[in-house]
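Troubleshooting: if your tokenizer reports a length mismatch, compare your output against this known-good record of 504 residues.
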Amino acid sequence: MPHKPGFKLFAVWDKIIALFFAATLVVLNVLRIVNISITCDENGYGWNGRLDSYRELWEDKFGSANNHILHSLLRKFFVDNFGNTLFTLRLDSLLAQVSFLIFSYLICRLIFKNRWWQLGGYIVLNLVSPLIFEFWGLSRGYGLALSFMTLSIFFLLKYSTDKKAAFLSWSFFCAILSVYSNFGYINYYVTLCIVVLLLFLLFPDNKQKVRFVQELLIVLVSSGVLALLIVGPLQYVYHNGELAFMGNAGFLQDTVRSLVTWGLALPGPAREKEVNVIVLSVVALTFFFGVFWCYVYLKKYRHKSAADQRIVYGVTFFALLILPVILLIGQHLLFNINYLTDRAALFFIILFTLNISYILYHISSMAKVPAVAAFLSIFLLTGYNYCSWANINTTILWYFNAGDLAVLRRMSNATKGRNEKLKVGISWYSETAFIYDIKYYFPDKFYPAVVISHLPKVDSSFDYFYVDLEDLQKVPGCYERDTSCIGGGYVLLKRIANLPAATK
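Known-good structure output:
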């Protein structure tokens, strides 16, 4: 009897580790949320003082691709009810992280029968991409979209196991919310529709007629609801030219390479060789996934009324990965729609990670040592890369905004006791952050910042300039360097002492 508590604790050791791991990531994310100054792309409702209504946000007649509609609606709700702070602006992304942590764990519990694989797969899914982690704490819709896609995948897997229509309905409901969080996930939604058809054809059972009717009904109703939600806003975004910001060089260059470079936080010439090796490895492994599951299906799938669930999972994961690739290439060739890049294509990282984790788990039943060694290598490399990046001060894509709030504080502290507001000229990269930070942190200390490229003439009436190296040459000679920021990429300049303010 005295040993029972110990035995119970031993029986749930993996759950305790998973819970501690999840709590650690949430704490780190909260620290980033409250420490990182608002970035130039966290726009839409709230950042510039524009009080968009709910209707304006869901109609999106202004045609902004940065208006990730579900995120904008949730953000407005939180800001209206709890105040405009960095935490409330980013709260829905934090909730998306919590949801992803829960359902990525449930997926691993579902597909892996070994607790070590469950825990390892769970950790890898949550650490594989520093860029994904960043979006759990930024005021953007990418985190919501990824989270809802993960929920959708979980319910799809449950449906493939239990064949309950409720699970498929939930899968499509979550897929709709994923698209409503970011339009790029329409590729996942279409893929989901095709995957349901493929599973119906490849793995028939004795209830085919019932399955066909319920699946067709769910697909049609869901697609109708999705069309009502996004057709109008998507047309406004398209006609406003917002989709032109994506890539047109090719799928490998635009999507795969940008995902490896930015998704894994490997930018810069020094990491070029690593990026090339990973890109080639991703292409080769994806080809291997396809060959492997085709072979397994044709070789081992004999009794279609009792399909091995492992094969169903494997085929499902591969279809979820390869079909969006085909869709993106097809859209570009037929309709000249540009390829998704980095942040908009992050779902590929999750799908690829699920594929490689599951195929190694499947192979481990036949070749345990090589499969475990390969997965352990991925585990260690993922953990090392994540730890090399981890911080609470800056972002990968918007690194240049890291110094904005600190620079404002520096200028404010240097002019303590001055009653007149300070006039600051800036590069456009800092515009969004300065608008927000001045309004909510220094409303009585600064005039609204002026983008230097907007000035009709050289103006020496400014107290400070905070510019990147490209704009440095536009600053008048009556300003001297105060300090360098962001690794020397930005410079804060102040008017030379005792020189009166004047306009040339």
